Amino acid sequence: MAEIVTVEATPDGSADPRLADYTGLTDVELRRRREPAEGLFIAEGEKVIRRAVAAGYEMRSMLLTAKWTHVMADVIDRTAAPVYEVAPDLAERVTGYHVHRGALASMHRKPLPPPADLLRTARRAVVFEDMVDHANLGAAFRNAAALGVDAVLLTPRCADPLYRRSVKVSMGAVLQVPWTRLESWPKDAELLREAGFVTAALCLDDRSITLDELAERRDDRLALLFGTEGDGLTAGALAAADLRVSIPMDAGVDSLNVAATSAVAFYMTRPRG
């Protein structure tokens, strides 16, 4: 069982070094650089912390306000990591925002597996190309977890799915779905082909088949490709794909948000039997 340590504000207003993992959480650029480099990520809220622990992530520490110490008692009992109890105003001063959920945990990242290892047993895979919006990425991961995706592959410029906002929006689903980064895209599309996947690029193209037609194919191993929120997939990704696929739209709407598109596509192409 971890010892609960009450941390008071320092007299000179400087940050207590024991809380270093939690400083400047609203500074996106800082946290995007720092967290992968230091091998950590932040889980925010009771449900996400519990899911991180259940997924086998090792805890570095917890930061709680007093009323959450009892709520998280069972998690505290199972960890040897330090648990820091702080006043709400100190939590806000350290993190840079009002921590209304009252519970944060710093977790160790796991090493990312080689893409070929993820694809070996998968039937449904997805590639997110250069998706930089953390909220969209988190939502797409949640869709993947709920709708039968076995492997998520991220291109080198894609956002960090373990950034706090991604984890929060996904409700911890980024901790459940196997994922890794590709090293060279779109060259690495060949890894999908070698593993026996049909690759289908979601795009707006007159040469596309419809999503209904793709679903009717019932491909045994299928990888769906999604591009950025604004420009969609790059020309290189489209050239590497076996198929181009679109979702027919009504009312003059040309496309859906990428996270919404992924939900529709995952559902329509989920394995049947």
Which segments are poorly predicted (pLDDT under 50) over 5 or more consecutive residues? none
Largest sheet: 7 strands, parallel
Distance between the termini: 44 Å
Q: Helical region count?
A: 12
Pfam families: MRM3-like_sub_bind, SpoU_methylase
Keywords: Methyltransferase, Transferase
Organism: Streptomyces camponoticapitis
Domain tRNA/rRNA methyltransferase SpoU type: 125-267
Q: Can you characterise this structure?
A:
With 273 residues, the chain is an alpha/beta fold. Helices cover 34% and strands 19% of the residues. It is built from 12 helices and 12 strands. Helix 8 links the parallel strand 7 and strand 8 (179-181). The chain is elongated and about 65 Å long. The mean pLDDT is 94. Keywords: Methyltransferase, Transferase. Residues 31-96 form the MRM3-like substrate binding domain. This is rRNA methyltransferase. Pfam families: MRM3-like_sub_bind, SpoU_methylase.
